[in-house]
Amino acid sequence: MLFDNDKFLTKMAKAFEDSKSSKTVYLTMKRHSYTTKKIKAAEEASEKASGDSVMGADDKDKEYPTLVRLNSGTKTKLSTLVQPHDLDRFMVQYTNIIKINMDNLKKKERKKAAKAKKATA
């Protein structure tokens, strides 16, 4: 479900709080373009037929919005579309929420430490 940026951040904080027991939270970010694969393929075919370049000068400088998704199990799926002019403010709030919830991470068990304990025992 697509939310506005502030609502997404509050729901993200709640998802991290709910996941303290044993759930996993997946976060993904990617550039969002409004064209679908079919439209893009048709545009490239028409550009090749007309002899124009596939990547125009306008495409290089164009700023795209960022799509941010959160998936927490099967029941919680959230997403938001961050516009380029809002990205700095969003990333500051996003990183603060991530830093606050870093204590939920589990420490990775090291294989060498386990082998050393077995050898001494």
Automatic annotation (TrEMBL):
Tell me one Pfam family matched here. Answer: SRP14
Q: What does this protein do?
A: Component of the signal recognition particle (SRP) complex, a ribonucleoprotein complex that mediates the cotranslational targeting of secretory and membrane proteins to the endoplasmic reticulum (ER).
Q: Which InterPro entries match?
A: Signal_recog_particle_SRP14, Signal_recog_particle_SRP9/14
Record key words, sorted = Cytoplasm, Ribonucleoprotein, RNA-binding, Signal recognition particle
Among the GO molecular function terms of this UniProt record, one is: endoplasmic reticulum signal peptide binding
Please identify the protein, giving its name as recorded: Signal recognition particle subunit SRP14
Subunit structure and binding partners:
Component of a fungal signal recognition particle (SRP) complex that consists of a 7SL RNA molecule (scR1) and at least six protein subunits: SRP72, SRP68, SRP54, SEC65, SRP21 and SRP14.
Q: Where in the cell is it found?
A: Cytoplasm
Cellular component, GO annotation: signal recognition particle, endoplasmic reticulum targeting
Q: Which gene encodes it?
A: SRP14
Q: Which protein family is named in the record?
A: Belongs to the SRP14 family.
Q: Name one GO biological process term.
A: SRP-dependent cotranslational protein targeting to membrane
Q: Which PANTHER family match?
A: SIGNAL RECOGNITION PARTICLE 14 KD PROTEIN
